[in-house]
Amino acid sequence: MKKTWVLFLALFTMMALAACGSDNSSSDNEESASGSSDENWKPDQSIEVVAPSGAGGGWDTTARMAAEGFEEEGIIDQGLGVVNKEGGGGAIGWSYIAEKSGNPHHMFVGSPPLLLVPLNGQSEYGYEDFTPLANMISDYGAFAVHKDAPWDNLNELFDDMKDSPDDITVIGESSPGSMDHIQFVKIAKAAGVDPKSVKYVSAQDGSTMTNLLNGNADVYSSGVTETIEQVRADKIRVLGVTSEERMEGDVVEDFPTAKEQGIDETFINWRGFFGPPDMSEAEIAYYEEKFAELNESEHWQETREKFAWNEMYMESEEYKEFLSEEKESMQELLDELNIQGE
Questions:
Q1: Of 184, 222, 223, 224, whose CA–CA distance to 200 is shortest?
Q2: Helix (H), strand (E) counts: the chain
Q3: For residue 178, which phi and psi values (nearest 5 degrees)?
Q4: Which position among 176, 190, 262, 319 has the lowest Cβ density within 10 Å, counted as fewest Cβ atoms?
């Protein structure tokens, strides 16, 4: 009986030790798998890219060309679908992505309105609420007038604005205090125009060019790309663009900069990609690598040339620093215009 009892205890002890070893091994394996998975994260389902606007325009075009490049160049194995979330100057799209916290299979295209719209109180979400992944390009503003307008350059326009600001209407697609308004004000201020005197009208229904051509507006503040076709058709003239130097490419090479007209100011329409809140370091690193690869690809080089975009790649941390500095600059302009967020 005693011998049986001793054998039973020995067997029980061996089983317990084996179970502990199995548990530890299982735990170690799980941790190892988890660590390996995290370090080498990659998407396991299709990726949704949100353009916080309707079809056409900068956000939509950037999203679609990037998705096309990732697939054509074989940079990302999973499919990428572009979805338009229009409204609120971008705020509807931002709100949608904010609800995808921790899900790295969603992203959106952002540009200066991501700073300006929250600052002027039209959105509860700003760039700090998302995960900057990479900036990809820089675009610039253009100030266009009807081909028969009385001004041949920006200085003539701004001189008239100083004398009779109420007689000159500037139109743009963005809301007051957002990009089309602010890029014009920034250049006009550098030329000596009182920012608060600028008569800006927002036409978010896509009627800006129509209003310029039929005489309901005098100046169209927009992106360079949006002016090219009407310049080719000899219906409008571009008095100036906001780039540091003359741009390269058919048509745009003829657009004078504000700087070469003696106005020492620029405005950069940067454009990049943001993920939802709470992405891991491994997920961020994955997208940084893929966007860097896209930036160097033949597809993206051709895309930049096609749309007269400049290269402006920034990885996540550099992008955050840039956005912080840009936000301060935008806040100063909005303060001067007395446009305050709630």
A1: 184
A2: 11, 10
A3: -110, -165
A4: 262
